[in-house]
């Protein structure tokens, strides 16, 4: 690739970082126990609650999103408790690995990759086994691009003494997620997707009944102790050494999101999703998630023909066009290409991604796919 060619990162994490955020992180470090940084944490907390749509504290953790998932399992449930894991992809399977490592008894509800859950299936399993104390699931399954009906599942779970633990890592700040109104008991996200930050931060919020449960669980993880983190959060501190630069960058990123307005963020993300799906369909590509209303707003997955593995296409898109796409994960590695459009990405970035994909195919698609994609974008914006 030419040394002067710019790159565009259209991956489901990490995502591009705005200049304002990068400059904020480059500022001289405040001390993590002094008043200047406490002010940053206090203001972050106000903004994080708006982002999560919750009155509960939102705890920042110095780890990836998987650390947040681990913290949830280890703080909310004791070994031997029974939980339901709803899995339809790579990250649903990660929930299963985590709860087994915690020593929980897992009831597994599996769907094929690309499919979403029916809340009535979950209701039936909970009715059949009253010993189930928690449900673990994704809001957005990043490995496939499926959006699960977590709002409807939460309505089922609120009727009983069961906690809903939701991975919102590729959903929060990308599509609407209202923690309190929906009735989510534990919501997790990460820094490197819709929040426009480098990897390294997870965020976790618990409902009042989840905090009550956490206080009854004996701590068995020295680092991920959410009760201690909450006590420090209330003093505008973190329990251990803070990732100072990331939290300063978070302050700028949250400020940008709220300045633009979350409704406008969601409108833009929906328009980008329609642009991607329309453009890919016009190219003759096969969308991996076909069910209307069940595709995530942050990435679009493309099902590759059996004769066309994903990796060479992804490699050529980068080599020739400077566009970074990603193949699938696990057993979908060569079967799927993921075109992400979350965070600090606009229509021009996505147009470049569609062009790079078309350029990299063995047979170039015919027709005005970019024009159709942009028409769909403007229509979704109401323009």
Secondary structure: elements and pairs:
Elements: E1 8-9, H1 19-25, H2 35-52, E2 58-61, H3 65-76, E3 82-87, H4 90-101, E4 105-110, H5 119-128, E5 132-138, E6 140-141, E7 146-147, H6 150-157, E8 163-167, H7 179-182, E9 186-190, E10 202-206, H8 208-216, H9 226-233, H10 244-260, H11 262-282, E11 286-287, E12 299-303, H12 310-321, E13 323-324, E14 326-327, E15 336-340, H13 347-360, H14 369-381
Helix pairs in contact: 1-10, 2-10, 3-4, 5-6, 11-13, 11-14, 12-13, 13-14
Question: Key features?
Answer:
383 residues; seven-stranded mixed beta sheet; four-stranded antiparallel beta sheet; 14 helices; 15 strands; globular
- Percent strand: 15-25%
Main sheet: which strands, in order across?
2-10-9-8-5-3-4
What characteristic shape results from the CA principal axes?
Answer: globular
Determine the mean pLDDT.
96
User: Would you count the extended β strands for me?
Assistant: 15
Instruction: Briefly note the structural class of the backbone.
Output: alpha/beta
The major beta sheet can be summarized as: 7 strands, mixed
Using the CA coordinates, give the radius of gyration.
21 Å
Counted by DSSP, the helix tally is: 14
């Amino acid at each position: 690739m030419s040394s002067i060619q710019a790159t565009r990162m259209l991956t489901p994490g990490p995502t591009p970082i705005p200049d304002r955020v990068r400059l904020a992180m480059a500022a001289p470090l405040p001390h993590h126990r002094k008043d200047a940084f406490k002010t940053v944490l206090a203001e972050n907390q106000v903004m994080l609650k708006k982002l999560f749509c919750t009155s509960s504290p939102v705890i920042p953790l110095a780890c990836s999103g998987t650390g947040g998932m681990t913290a949830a399992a280890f703080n909310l449930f004791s070994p031997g408790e029974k939980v339901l894991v709803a899995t339809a992809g790579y990250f649903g399977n990660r929930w299963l690995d985590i709860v087994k490592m915690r020593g929980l008894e897992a009831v597994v509800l599996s769907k094929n990759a690309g499919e979403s859950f029916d809340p009535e299936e979950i209701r039936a399993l909970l009715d059949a086994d009253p010993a189930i104390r928690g449900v673990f699931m994704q809001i957005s399954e990043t490995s496939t691009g499926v959006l699960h009906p977590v709002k409807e599942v939460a309505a089922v779970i609120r009727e009983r003494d069961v906690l809903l633990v939701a991975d919102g890592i590729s959903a929060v700040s990308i599509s609407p997620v209202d923690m309190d109104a929906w009735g989510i008991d534990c919501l997790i996200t990460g820094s490197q997707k819709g929040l426009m930050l480098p990897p390294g931060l997870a965020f976790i919020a618990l409902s009042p009944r989840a905090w009550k449960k956490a206080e009854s669980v004996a701590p068995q993880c020295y680092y991920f102790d959410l009760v201690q983190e909450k006590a420090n959060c209330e003093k505008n501190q973190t329990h251990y050494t803070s990732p100072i630069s990331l939290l300063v960058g978070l302050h700028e990123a949250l400020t940008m999101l709220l300045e633009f307005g979350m409704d406008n963020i969601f409108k833009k993300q929906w328009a980008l999703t329609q642009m991607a799906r329309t453009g890919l369909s016009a190219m003759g590509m096969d969308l991996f998630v076909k069910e209307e209303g069940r595709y995530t707003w942050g990435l679009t997955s493309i099902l590759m023909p059996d004769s066309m593995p994903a990796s060479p296409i992804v490699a050529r898109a980068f080599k020739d066009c400077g566009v970074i796409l990603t193949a699938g994960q696990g057993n979908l590695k060569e079967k799927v290409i993921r075109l992400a459009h979350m965070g600090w990405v606009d229509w021009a970035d996505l147009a470049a991604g569609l062009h790079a994909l078309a350029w990299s195919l063995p047979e170039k698609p015919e027709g005005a796919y970019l024009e159709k994609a942009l028409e769909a974008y403007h229509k979704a914006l109401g323009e």
